[in-house]
């Protein structure tokens, strides 16, 4: 941590800062130049509140040096993590595609889609039983019944299931039935839920909030990991910008950035990011080429009748084509 | 709703759209020009999913005409709402200041601050018992004990209390002890919590999410109102932009926009928005001049020792000066 | 400047950095802790390129400590600047309103509006002769003829004129005829134009770019001042965010931030920021309450026939009311 | 264009709107429902100013239906454009890589880099002679001398050159010496320069502004094309968002969006977008996989000594590896 002092600061103004640092057991070094005077600390400063230091009238600014995440970061865990979930691997060179409908609508629908995506090479089945909707008047999913239909599809196809939890009310059901518990973008900083889900010690797929920085995403992962889970998959699904041609702006560069800063697998969801099915294919390929560890794709056998997000769902035929190209792109970037 | 068709669309492609609209009981009119062909619907289209229409291959784009919120909107409720909460009025010309520490730290602290802000003219006491923190390792508030200390301060000063709920676990305690239940920015789209809090039928202070549009804020209010509460206070507390000189960018223009679109009272929180105590005064005055119905301000008797957000808290002395100026600005804008 | 080194950096990797610093005459101090190793420099580092240091493989990150602007900053010019332009003062307690139409359309129009705004207390006449338009097919202003009509209005009313320059082609005409040369938001980083206008040594009104940080705005002012002009007025006119309820988001907090970091006067343009005339009044009052040194307002005697930006122009009647309220707000915030 | 009227609008309030439309020769149709009343126009409405309509007090909102660009759009030019520039093709299946240093520094430097990038398969040489720099005190390029050094490199290698123009002062030199004239992001809405460069009727590379929408980029292209040039190459180089882990956020989805809306070739610049050389490779591959028509890459033989932007430049060795992978990714996405 670096503390920059205001021009013309008096010695007696700085003393209480040194006193506070000393009490916290921190060794500080001063750097003084013609125009600037700074206090540098190179030890573990996690015990000091930046905020308290900012309150001293002589402090102009503070700059943090260390990353605030430890469990999610690469610094103390340089190897990429590989997770084996229900026989499907992800991370450290293992690529996984999670596909399925936005929301589970019926037995017939979910079984048909599950069979189709498995045939094309998907390794996880995704599907929403509980749906976050902007309007209180919109379809909110089948709830527990939807969760049971997913389990039925899992039994038929063998694919582990990924599905979103929206409140702690259903923690037990998710602990029992889901293979990967998804935390949606809107709940990325629902800190209570993060801790509770972490305590289940199950694999978690954590979606980046629409306006969350990469550091905040890693801090949310840290919450889950501090709660007890060691298997967190990070998912970029578009951030909010001024551009309106796509629903959100898919931050593809989050892939190499997250891979550099963290050991956790990174998955991209181009369906929610773009909002239009015809942009899903190019963005799925882009994410793969950027080095993602997997994709999350919405597939619907009858998009125009979908109860939710039909416009961003691809048909099983298009999904099949995407899978073929994704495989070829992975080969293309593999060798140097 | 307006449906814009692609150039060169064939009649047989449009038919299924008209059929679907007919089934939904919607009367559609077509507008055809040299370069564009549109279908216009002026009735209640809340029953149709935009998404299903977007799936028809001949559809280029959809434009929504009606506002999706009814309970929160001005259209069906043209008069400004006035709420009387524990004897304190807000809205429709009544101005209310909610002041207090970021988090409740001790009996001594909360009683001293409560007395001070009351003396200067605050009408509500704010204080956090449960704190959302970006880091899992940071102080998270005193919890229920904090809630009880707030109640003690209320008994001494008579000020109703505003405090944030973070999870449904404590719904009963908040229903019993809080006068205004606050939903924080990070939970603005925690739809489960919105419905549950709405069902308590108590006054709610709803903070705008960091990247939520004004329409999304009103839809979140709609959730609470559809849940049962009729008293929702809207709070702007800064949005996330590219600018880093302030913690967030306070969207002061949200005040006149919200007042135009909704009948609910609008409160501004300049403390969280700017992140620095010395910007709180000018922004509190700006919000007042823009026509806000109230302010939410962090006040701490000892900012440098605050356990949370000390840098953005003003002292009781500064608060007193702000209150004086706020009163004068309100007079200045009152008469035409 | 602080250089943070990567974990596990070898001594031989750091040597070339020290060598480079030494060659630049910079005294560096090292701060070493358990997990972090940093090089701190407190002298004048304006001669080193951050970029060259970032190229050394052992460098993880660089943090700049000093502000990169000198002429525009408060550090070496602690007193607020006051400019006297054609008998009108602005800055350091002097408040100035610049009012007039978006574009000059005819002699009759500009003379009528000029007389009206002067009557209500405006001190500068604004009006566009050259207009930047998003579409190549839109009205682009009367050009030099417009400039001459402004001069005519100046002769009649005595008000100095503010008008936008769009290219270096007309530098001579602006040098001769304009009292304040405006650089528009879209040209804020047209560095050639900034230098050329600076060399005229005339007062300049510099608008903040739609996505420019406050630091970039001050660096653009620095360009003009390094070019020769000492009288730069900074103008915030809305930044681009995700919100679409207003055309742009007026960053009112830019007022206290700019006042803290710079000695130059700060003016707010709520007309372009909001895009709707009915939001202009509340935002003009907000800007005044936040401590702005002036306002720039679009006034049109016949908004629905305006050739440009009619929707954001207020009538002379509304302008008169705004001026009254602005005066009262200024009194309200004056005394402590 | 759709005009939505306010609730409770009287007939006499609407009449002047119909009158104005009639005068402009526009046939309007009214759509009336229980809660909404709209006026729809399907003909050519480019002659009406949205702004004038917004001034009528009974108008709530306007929605534009037609795209405002004609020359740059796909509607009237459904085939993808292919440009042949100095023997190098781009667009419509032809892929082109533009590589070279951020700025031309010396004869030795530019010749060495030109030879290296040609060897690896680049088809255009990029290099800055005039450099836009945020600070007035930074290196601004060699100017005309730099342009001549580029021409020398072109003579040696046969590669056509791409270089940025910053002001109209040097139009003649660029007309004579450059093969592709680059308009930088900061000048994307320097409308005077756009028209002047268009009038040269030479190929232009137009970079998207940091906060420009895709529609604004196409409108800027429209300016150049209306000026006379028919060969405009669009370049995405990162947009400004709240994320700070990369310098800007590369909007990879701009590739399929631009390809859908326009017939012009689309090129991606991952060097400026990310700001760090180690993110250039993954993002170059992502852009290729998304369907870009080309790449613009900064290559420097000695990045740590570069006078500008060294941190984002790759070495010739890394460039060679990128080119190999780019070629393989193009094959991977080619067949269905």
Give the biggest beta sheet of chain A: 8 strands, parallel, barrel
Largest protein interface, residues of each chain: A-B, 48 and 47 residues
Percentage of helical residues of chain A? 25-40%
As laid out across the biggest beta sheet of chain A, the strand order is: 7-8-9-10-11-12-13-14
Element pattern of chain A in H and E: EHEEHEEEEHEHEHEHEHEHEHHEH
Content-based structural category of chain A? alpha/beta
Query: Number of helix segments of chain A?
Result: 11
Estimate what percentage of residues of chain A fall within beta strands.
15-25%
How far from one another are the termini of chain A?
39 Å
Q: What's the Cα radius of gyration of chain A?
A: 23 Å
The low-pLDDT segments of chain A are none
Oligomer designation: homotetramer
Instruction: Give the CA-based shape of chain A.
Output: elongated
- Would you count the extended β strands of chain A for me? 14
pLDDT average of chain A, as an integer?
A: 92
Secondary structure elements and pairings:
Four copies of one chain form a homotetramer.
Chain A: E1 2-5, H1 11-23, E2 28-32, E3 37-41, H2 50-54, E4 59-63, E5 83-85, E6 88-90, E7 96-100, H3 107-119, E8 124-126, H4 144-157, E9 161-165, H5 171-177, E10 180-183, H6 191-199, E11 204-207, H7 214-227, E12 232-236, H8 254-261, E13 266-268, H9 270-274, H10 280-289, E14 294-298, H11 316-334
Helix pairs in contact in A: 3-4, 6-7, 10-11
